[in-house]
Pyridoxamine 5'-phosphate oxidase family protein (Kibdelosporangium philippinense), 101 residues
Amino acid sequence: MVDSAGLEVLNEAECFQLLAGAPVGRIVFNDRALPAVLPVNFAVLGRTLVIRTGARTRLAIAGINTVVAFEVDEFHTFPHPRRVECRGGGNRYSSVGPGGP
């Protein structure tokens, strides 16, 4: 499918495939009423993105129990780069088992 700007829209399976293959993503959250963007390592567990961070980091303090955005992209596929953007709730898990959070 192509959107109104002429860009190809990826289906859900393609989005998760791109997410699973990306080494680094960017998480966006509010930090003291301003947008903050941090590069992070992450894992895909089913339909959940898992980011490990320290208990007292900016992300752990400001990005929990709020809406966050997450993005990965592939520019090495030029002239057809791909990008996936996700939005959802930031939650805290003390551990992640084999079945996910």
